[in-house]
């Protein structure tokens, strides 16, 4: 897709359409198996991480929650985001796949607060779109941009279907590029990997 002149709002519409069409054509078995295994290069990059933040995929988003079992098997604590307000604030709460979730704002759900927020060493973020320069196009609320800024030492990982790749994602000054993008087809790493 040529996205040189398109703005972020237009790109979001196009990327969502591409994602929806791709997921609709996926074989059900392929969909169920996608993102159930951590590729070895990603597992190596996460070796020193104690806490990895995931998200609960909505609708046709890549299902990050499927990575919970392999992460837990590696001895990692898994966390999910909790949206705090409309200003783009969120924190992360520890979670296990058998724990119930509480409904949150904007169709989100999060774990019980338990011992309170945790500090992630890696943040796996949903993507609307991405490019080979590891720029991400999110929902537009700034939640993950703020989380990346708040946890600057956390490994930034985007999760998406391969069909969400764009030629070029415009980056604003506050947009931090990802360190890694994982799709069902490949792992894309930055030059410093």
UniProtKB/TrEMBL annotation:
Pfam families to which the protein is assigned, alphabetical: 5-FTHF_cyc-lig
Catalytic reaction(s) noted: (6S)-5-formyl-5,6,7,8-tetrahydrofolate + ATP = (6R)-5,10-methenyltetrahydrofolate + ADP + phosphate
Keyword tags: ATP-binding, Ligase, Magnesium, Metal-binding, Nucleotide-binding
Domain of life: Bacteria
Molecular function GO labels: 5-formyltetrahydrofolate cyclo-ligase activity
Stated family: Belongs to the 5-formyltetrahydrofolate cyclo-ligase family.
Source organism per UniProt: Sphingobium xenophagum
Gene3D superfamilies: NagB/RpiA/CoA transferase-like
Protein name according to UniProt: 5-formyltetrahydrofolate cyclo-ligase
Catalytic class of the enzyme: ligase
EC number(s) from the headed UniProt entry: 6.3.3.2
Stretches that traverse the bilayer: none
PANTHER family to which the protein is assigned, alphabetical: 5-FORMYLTETRAHYDROFOLATE CYCLO-LIGASE, ATPASE INHIBITOR/5-FORMYLTETRAHYDROFOLATE CYCLO-LIGASE
Cofactor(s) it depends on: Mg(2+)
């Amino acid at each position: 897709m040529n996205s040189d002149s398109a703005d972020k709002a237009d790109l979001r519409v196009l990327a969502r359409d591409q994602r929806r069409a791709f997921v609709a054509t996926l074989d059900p078995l392929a969909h169920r198996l996608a993102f159930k295994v951590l590729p070895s290069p990603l597992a190596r990059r996460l070796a020193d991480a104690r806490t990895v933040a995931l998200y609960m995929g909505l609708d046709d988003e890549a299902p990050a929650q499927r990575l919970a079992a392999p992460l837990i098997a590696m001895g990692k604590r898994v966390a999910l985001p909790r949206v705090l307000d409309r200003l783009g604030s969120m924190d992360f709460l520890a979670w296990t796949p058998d724990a119930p979730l509480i409904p949150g704002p904007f169709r989100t759900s999060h774990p019980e607060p338990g011992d309170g927020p945790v500090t992630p060493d890696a943040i796996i973020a949903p993507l609307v779109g991405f490019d080979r320069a590891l720029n991400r196009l999110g929902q537009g609320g700034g939640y993950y941009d703020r989380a990346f800024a708040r946890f600057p030492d956390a490994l930034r990982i985007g999760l998406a279907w391969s069909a969400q790749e764009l030629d070029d994602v415009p980056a604003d000054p506050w947009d931090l590029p990802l360190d890694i993008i994982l799709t069902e087809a490949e792992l894309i790493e930055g030059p410093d990997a």
